[in-house]
Each structure stands twice: as structure tokens, then as C-alpha cells.
Amino acid sequence: MIEFIVSERCTACDRCVEVCPSNVFEPMEAGPPVIARQDDCQTCFMCELYCTADALYVGPNAYHAEPADPAAVIASGLLGQYRRDSGWDEWQDHYPNEQWLMETVFRRAAEAAR
């Protein structure tokens, strides 16, 4: 579930607002969006994937909010981890993720089975 936005990192691009399927965020006229409907979060991580500033933290619990200490999360390096591990955007050449390339995976499995 979405836990917080690091306002110092946020560029106020509102991409998280645009991609959220649950309409969790509310855009602000000036500054970063706010988490207006946290309980509606589906923990789909779309906001994290599209946040190139790594300003969002989505906790792993999809059912309950688990408030986290922003300073501790920032220090841990967790911000942006899902995007990096998914091989998203600028990370695609460094950390390729074959989940997005399932055709390749199935083709290799078929070749191995022959």
C-alpha cells in the first residue's frame, strides 16, 4: 500500500496521478500530489514504476497501511527499488527483467524441451 511521498524528491510531474488505477492521488496546484485515498491503493506499484524521481514508497502490505519512517526508508535505499528490479526505463540495460519479455521465456522453454 502507498505509504508516503518524499516531497523533496518529487518533481510534481503528476505521472503517479495519471497512472494510478485506483485514483489514490490528488494533484495539487503547486507542489507534489497528496495521497488522498490510501485505502483504495491496490499495491500495483504503477506509481513507483513511473516515478523517475524515486519519490514514492509503496509498502509490501496490500491490505493494511504500515506507516514507515521516511528517513529510514530513504537511508535504506528502498526508494526506486521496484523500478530498478523490474528493469524499467533507464534500468532496462542494467537489470533486464524477462517478466516483460514472456515470449522470449516461452520460446527458450520450447527450445529446451525439444
TrEMBL record:
Q: Which GO terms describe its molecular function?
A: iron-sulfur cluster binding; metal ion binding
Instruction: Enumerate the Pfam families for this protein.
Output: Fer4_9 (PF13187)
| Record-linked InterPro entries | 4Fe4S_Fe-S-bd, 4Fe4S_Fe_S_CS
Q: Where is the 4Fe-4S ferredoxin-type domain?
A: 1-30, 31-61
**What keywords would UniProt list here?**
Iron, Iron-sulfur, Metal-binding
Recorded hits in Gene3D superfamilies, A to Z, give: 3.30.70.20
Q: Does the keyword Iron-sulfur apply?
A: yes
Q: What is this protein called?
A: NAD-dependent dihydropyrimidine dehydrogenase, PreA subunit
Give the source species: Bosea thiooxidans
Upper lineage ranks?
Answer: Bacteria, Pseudomonadati, Pseudomonadota, Alphaproteobacteria, Hyphomicrobiales
